[in-house]
Amino acid sequence: ATADLVTARDAFDRLVRTRADSAAKGTRLVVELPIFRSSISFADGPTMDVTAADYCGKLGADICIVTNRQGEWIGQAGGWPGANRPSEITAVIEPARQGRPSRDMVSVDGVLYLVVVEPAMFSADEVLGTFAAAYALDDRVATQLAQEAHCSVTLLCGPAKICASSLPATERAA
To answer: For residue 68, which of 34, 30, 119 has the smallest C-alpha distance?
Structure first.
């Protein structure tokens, strides 16, 4: 059982690292686009929502956020379950506002997300804003992990809250 747990944990760490690295490359490409950097400075909310939706779809992310240099949300695609602007997400965005890429796993209202944030830079020391992409770590991801680890996988959002599992719903409550 301990070996299965170690195997599952290693598989989870590899999967998250691979997804985070891939997501970071994609978000970095977005923030380096001249049209994106220009949009942050001059676009209105509805335009930035469309921009966020376009890039979010291309990246395969569940939720995307664009902020200006002050950290104000100026564009969003997708929505957080039950929360408008979760503080957990704002905390992941903050390092990018200082020019440092950021990534973390956060739980928002019972859903676990991998969040990757890149700063949109004008120069080496001027941050125009940020672009964040969030990917749900859901039952599909848990099932993928279970197949790789050859055991059942359940992801928790807190001490007793199941946020994703490879188990059928009837077995989760047991």
So the answer is: 119
Query: pLDDT of 14-40, one tens digit each?
Result: 888 888 999 999 999 999 999 999 888
The helix/strand/coil state of 33 is coil
User: Which residues in the chain land under pLDDT 70?
Assistant: 1, 4, 81-83, 173-174
Residue 116 contacts residue 168 (beta carbons within 8 Å): no
Tokens (6 digits) for 125: 């020391």
**Token output for 65:** 């956020």
CA separation (Å) from 11 to 18, 19, 140?
10, 12, 15
Distance CA 13, CA 7 (A): 10
